[in-house]
Each structure stands twice: as structure tokens, then as C-alpha cells.
What does this fold into?
Amino acid sequence: MKIFSNFESGAINVVKAESIDDIQLTIPNDNQSEFYQWFHFRLESLVGEQHSIKLLNLAKSAYPEGWDNYRVAASYDREEWFRIPAEFDGDTLTFKVTPEHNSIYFAYFAPYSYGRHQDLIHHAQLHPECTLETLGHTLDGNDMSLLTIGTPEPGKKIVWVIGRQHPGETMAEWFIEGLLTRLLDDEDSVGRTLLGNSVFYVVPNMNPDGAIHGHLRTNAIGVNLNREWAEPSMARSPEVFLVRQKMLQTGVDLFLDIHGDEAIPYNFVAGSEGTPSYSEERQALEDAFKSALMAITPEFQDEYGYDKDKPGEANLTVASNWVAEQFDCLSYTVEMPFKDHDFAPDEDYGWSPQRSHQFGRDTLAAVSAVMGLV
Ligand SMILES: [Zn+2]
It folds into this structure.
């Protein structure tokens, strides 16, 4: 039996692996950080024999409640990621698998590779209205890539969409892939209409370093980018510094920051009700957006989510709050589950790349529905 994590976004520590009925593993911390939750490894072993795998020390992971009712993502071909039931006792997650092939991958959620990221942005630039631009570089020297879609003209609305500030939340890039595919589809009237009245700035991966390292939540030096928006710096958080600088040049009329939530088994949004500039107008916009999205897809709901910030108590280091305050606009953090959307559960796949992709497409229709109001 062999266990590997010597590949992009690989993350696991082997504590014990002498016997297939007692494989004990731990999850490494994000570099220079307390956070750990993302795992990704490959098991090469006997076909047809049951293996028992334990992930230890999860009581101190970033989101211990994320392991309740969580099912492990697994794949033989790195395309189809099915789910394996697991049991959590408050500190150890135990799951059993009888491999059908001698190599099997496991991950916290279906990975979104840096290669696929490059394919996504380079395929997008083939569209005549799409431009790919490198804003600068990360601490590891990776590209901060921005797609501009549509031609800026007076009267057009400015829409910004970013994903994967938290790099282990890979569902965010699957979502953006769906949103971009629809926006760039000439046969889709939602995309065509939006390109007639707005310009999109899209950063599919805000944290390529963390994504490549196999981090859950931070960049190469352990910085949580979604707490850097008030005062980013090139030394600590060039990812945010560069994108924020561009936003200040373009302005923003509508902002979506795409995430995954470890604990809550629903899709939901978090608004800017705690920002000093929050108003009845902004609340009306938020309500219109949520109503549109709920009418479009049963994958969205507004019953379960985060507690709302009290007036004036928003954390302005968070992207969606900083943008709302700076530009006085509709600004949402969009959260998808690592587990499943419990109003429409899927036993085989849980919340999945396919559903994230479709939710991105559907969310674009909700953006279109409120475009006349923003
Ligand atoms: Zn997040």
C-alpha cells in the first residue's frame, strides 16, 4: 500500500499505514497558518479489499462542524468525483472503501487544477469581446489573471466576479466556469443581453498560490485574503492589492465574491447590511436579486445562512463589505456547500462540480434580472 500527495494541491500526512484496516492520516496546516481542512491524496493498493481510513485531530481543524454529515469525495479517473459515506466522532473522521482499481484519489472537494484554470481563461479569450490580462504576480510568482468581457462605454454597468480567495473552496471556480460559459455563449440570450448593457471583470482564481499549495484558506504565507481588503499590501496580499487597485479604476455596480462553506449544507448569500452605507435602496436590490435567483433555481434558498451583521458592525476587511461601502452597490458573498444542498440532496455526488457550474449559469440569469435596477 502506498499513499501519495506529491502533486499539485496534494495535502496529507501519513501517521500509520501498515495495515489496510487501520490507515491513520492527518491534514497539514496551510503554510504559516493555524488553518487546516483541505486534504487531497492518492491511495495505491489492493483491488477488492476493504480499507479503513481515519483522518485524525479534526477537532482542531478550521471548521470541526464541517465534518458532521460530510462525505468524502473520491475519484478513479480525476473526472468523476463520487462520495463515500463517513462517520465523525468529534475528532476522527472514519471512512471505508473497497477500491475497484488499484489507484484512487480522495479530496475534500473535487479539485480545480491550475491547468484547468489556464484552459478556462485562455478558452474565454477566444471570444471577440473577452480580453485576458495579467494584473501582476503573487508571492510565488504566479499570474493574477483578469478577464474583461464587453466593451466599456458610458452607461454600461460594471460587474465584478471573483472566486477562490479561499483556495480550497474549489466549487467557486466550477461556479465561475459555468457563469463564464453562459456569458460567452452567443446562442444564450442572457449572456448576449448582459454584454449589451454591462461589462464584466472576472477573476476566476484570486489565490493561485494557495490553490497550488493545497491550502484551505490562505495564500503562500498564511494570509487570509478575505480579511485584507481594508489595507492590502504587495508584501502580504498582492492578490487583493492588485485586484482592488483595478476595481478603483473601473468602479463597481455589482459584485459577487464566490465561496464554499464547510458547515452549512445549503447555498446562500451574505449581504452588506452591517456597512455604514447600507440603505433601503440596497436592501431592495438585495431582495430583488434573491427573489430572482430563487425563482430561477431550487438550488438557492434564503432560510439558512450566516447571522446578519448588526447595523454598522460589518467587518470592512471582508471583500463584499469593503466593495459595498466603497462603491455603494449590490455586493454579495455567495456560499456553496462542501457537503450538499439539503433541499435537493444527491446521494451519489453531494454538492458537485456539475451543480456548482449550473448554479453559476443560473446566478448569471439573476444578475441579468436585476441589471435594470443597479
Ligand atoms: Zn470562503
